[in-house]
Amino acid sequence: MAVASSSDITGEKQAFKIRRLEISDKRKGFMELLGQLTVTGSVTDDEFDQRFKEISSHGDDHLICVIEDEPSGRIAATGSVMIEKKFLRNCGKVGHIEDVAVDSEFRGKRLGKRVVEFLTDHCRAMGCYKVILDCGVEKKEFYEKCGLVNKGIQMSKYF
Question: pTM to 2 decimals?
Fold first, then answer.
């Protein structure tokens, strides 16, 4: 668990800790943060707990990380990665990064880059030969700054 300190514009100290999602993070604004990214719906505490346990059962193959603003106890940023096991490349593995979000109050502090680096390092440690993600055109420059390159076109079909 990495902790970094920085000063905000007012000179107040902020300490951010990057770590795995914990079941108590729903009470720290995790779902509201995801709501800044896309539609989350109304997830009850029981539904959250059940989904958390399901995701946790996949161990290191499905990791959700968060960055907590320690002084406030709020979740400031998040992202997830799923490890796909393949037959290609000598039964290689690919990391799929998803749901990278930084709370609007904490943007501009390089937290998104820290999330992507944390997830990428996890994939490297898991033996992945590459990490991929889908993003909108407006996020392309950000992900390029994180070391990713544009390799094609995303196709989707929503149900």
Answer: 0.89
